[in-house]
Amino acid sequence: MKFKFQVSSVVKEVSYSIIVYQLLLSIGYGRGYIVFLFRQLALPGSQIILNDEQKSRIAGSIGILSPLGCILSGTLMDMFGRKLYFFVTFIPQIISWVIIALADSYEMLLYGMIIQGINLGMAFTTSTYISEIASSTRRGALLGGLTVSYSSGAMLCNVLMYCIPWNVVAWIYAGLSVFGMLSMLLLVESPVWLYNKGRREIAIRALCSLRATNIDGVKNEIGDMEKNNAGKPKASIVGTMKNLLNAWKPFSIAVSLQLLFQLTGYTALFGYTIDIFDRLKLPLDSSRFTIVYAIAGVIGAACAPIFMFKMNRRTHLRSTAAIMAICTISVGVYEEIFYHSDDKPFSFIVPVAFYIFSLACNAGVLPISYTVGTELYPSEVKGMVNGIFGALYYITWSVILKVYPAFLNTVHIKIIIWCYTSFCLLIILFGTFILPETKGKTLNEVQEQYFQKKKKKSKNEMHTVIE
After folding, report:
1. End-to-end Cα separation, the chain, in angstroms
2. Among 21, 173, 184, residue whose Cα is nearest residue 93
């Protein structure tokens, strides 16, 4: 069988990743929409008037069905394939934005945001596809682009909502969602998923399309797929349960890291930036601080793909966590010295430290904690396990945001800052002793760290099909 290749593998991998990034852009849209929505509805002449309780319900509604969306995503992705799943994911997104655009009451806004939460969860497993189509040398950089997409979506939302009415913006997002859904038809199906479903020849053609002229690389990857499936349970309910049980070790690593990440303070700062800054009692504008803090996060996210391409995972995680720890230590020491002082010299130290904290977190700890599981989970149940991971991620996120105000009212802000420092230091230890190194390794090589299986030396059948 002969193949003609016109586009390089780099261009194809990047192009398919950019198409899938639209799902992460949509998450950014949903997260950034609510703040400016409430601001516009508070203006004179608004048709919808909301009280504080209704605002709280709408703000919290987007996370109600996110865990359900995550669990559905993993199951549907493993059953029907990555390409079809991504296409279907845009349906609740389109419905939610149309409902919001047509909303003339509190109830319609609430229902629209609840449906938006389903999409928030369903889009979480995007990293599964990218980890399966990207070559080992580019996988880290392309996974790092997920954080850039999310941050860019939030920033784009801020710009649009600043100058365009909220219902018009909702129509724009509905149109972008339709475009995104149609663009999913351009994707190539994951060769890993195809091979696991027994569709070998189609998997080979998909892999050849991705890797262009690198036929030797295709042979090696097919050989890896063959070894990866050797001795594993067959596709059945019992086989699926066995594969899920086999995934306990990488799953526990991924969950532990994401829990440590959320306790570093990034989640709380994301939801209560102005409140936390006000409690530090600095002679600075908290609103401006919030805007610059968000911009620092976008800059950090833009650096993430570069660092994930150049650095190994352990060094990347430890170095960014160390920078975060230095920042929180700086804030903690400053507050220990000047908290009770009416005159606070060098007050710029605190916001600068938080800016660097946001930049470092988005450049390393956040993308690694978000994507490490997609490199570790067994390919047969990767979507399902990643969906469960996403559900736990959003539950943890919701609990922290729900409990944090009460925690902030009972514990001194200085103690909270030192708690942030301790979790940053724990991440450094985690990166040193627990986190497996995945940079430059194929998915099969990564999984061989966790699964004992018999290796089949014969690749003649695969080579014959390729040649």
Report:
1. 6
2. 173
**d(C-alpha 458, C-alpha 217), whole Å:** 17
Annotate the chain with three-state secondary structure.
Answer: CCCCCCCCHHHHHHHHHHHHHHHHHHHHHHHHHHHHHHHHHCCCCCCCCCCHHHHHHHHHHCCCCHHHHHHHHHHHHHHHCHHHHHHHHHHHHHHHHHHHHHCCCHHHHHHHHHHHHHHHHHHHHHHHHHHHHCCCCCHHHHHHHHHHHHHHHHHHHHHHHHHCCHHHHHHHHHHHHHHHHHHHHHCCCCHHHHHHCCCHHHHHHHHHHHHCCCHHHHHHHHHHHHHHHCCCCCCCHHHHHHHHHHCHHHHHHHHHHHHHHHCCCHHHHHHHHHHHHHHCCCCCCHHHHHHHHHHHHHHHHHHHHHHHHHCCHHHHHHHHHHHHHHHHHHHHHHHHHHCCCCCCCCCCHHHHHHHHHHHHHHHHHHHHHHHHHHHHCCHHHHHHHHHHHHHHHHHHHHHHHHHHHHHHHHCCHHHHHHHHHHHHHHHHHHHHHCCCCCCCCCHHHHHCCCCCCCCCCCCHHHHHHHC
Two tokens, residue 180: 């995104």
Tokens of 37: 């929505």
Cβ-count burial 228-260 (b if 16+ within 10 Å, e if not): bbeebeeeeeeebebbbebbeebbebbbebbeb
On whether the CB atoms of residues 20 and 130 are closer than 8 A, the answer is: yes
Per-residue pLDDT reduced to its tens digit, 158-187 = 778 778 898 999 999 999 999 999 999 999
Which residue shows structure tokens 């990866």? 228
Interatomic CA distance for residues 199 and 61, integer angstroms: 41
Rounded to whole angstroms, the Cα distance separating 151 from 154 reads 5
Question: Token digits for 425?
Answer: 């230091």
Tens of pLDDT, residue by residue over 77-93, are 888 888 999 999 899 89
**Alpha-carbon dihedral 323, 389, 141, 297, rounded to 10 degrees:** -40
Asked whether the predicted pLDDT for residue 464 surpasses 50, the reply is no
Q: Which amino acid is at 406?
A: A
What is d(CA 361, CA 322) in angstroms, rounded to the nearest whole number? 10
Cβ 344 vs Cβ 283: under 8 Å: yes
Residues contacting 185, CB < 8 A, separation 6+: 83, 87
- Prediction pTM value: 0.74
Three state DSSP letters for 392-406: HHHHHHHHHHHHHHH
